[in-house]
Amino acid sequence: MTDITDAYFSNLIGRLEELKQTLAEPMAQAAAVILDAAHGDKRVYVFGTGHSHMLAEEVHYRAGGLAFTVPVLVGSAMLHEGAVISSVYERTQGLVRPMLERYGMQPGDVIIIASNSGVNAAPIEAADYAREIGAKVIAITSIAYSSAIANGRRRLADVADVVLDNGLPPGDAVVDLEGTGLRVGPVSTAVGVTVINAIFAEVASELSKSGDAPIYLSANMPGAAEINQKLVKKYRPRNPHL
């Protein structure tokens, strides 16, 4: 392993170890909010623009994942239809509301919004919309990043019911390239998927105690086809991506 790869691994592992402590309480709060929604047969939406949208895909129809999750996936807010225009999209007011209306979010639902910078228009508008209709908002964001660049603007952390501060530095990348002034090795995705999977694992554990955990199996596991088919039939009416 080279010095650079070692530095990246060490940095990421160190951050995850630290987050086990600093996020223990807010992760417990997030799990409680999601568990309450699950008991009410509600849905948990996951939204992010740019690279943050990968957290929505991470929990969608995933082996070991919960079937009541709904990814909010809109091409113009992601990267594959045009990375440059997606950056403009996430900073433009008024585009998210009609997008979310398609999903039929209801009072008592939950939306997890991932935004590392925490100041762009799209994630904040998503949080405002969710709270207007009576849904709970869980934010995965960097307080350090949003505090450094807010310049008086509202931050996602200011409008969420539960804030999961990923502790990442402004700019996301964490490994210095000596003599260049540049950094490489972004970690927000790795941290984000770890945090969100840990929370859903906790929720699944609690639901399993009553035998009511709607968990997908890997398609190659025995009995997976029958179990997954039943879950899809139940949850497809409120998940347009199944």
TrEMBL record:
The keyword Glycoprotein does not apply. InterPro entries: RpiR-like_SIS (IPR035472), SIS_dom (IPR001347), SIS_dom_sf (IPR046348), SIS_GmhA/DiaA_subfam (IPR050099). Residues 30-209 form the SIS domain. GO terms for molecular function: isomerase activity. It comes from Rhizobium ruizarguesonis. The keyword Isomerase applies. Keywords: Isomerase. Gene3D superfamilies: Glucose-6-phosphate isomerase like protein, domain 1 (3.40.50.10490). It comes from the Bacteria. This is Sugar isomerase domain-containing protein.
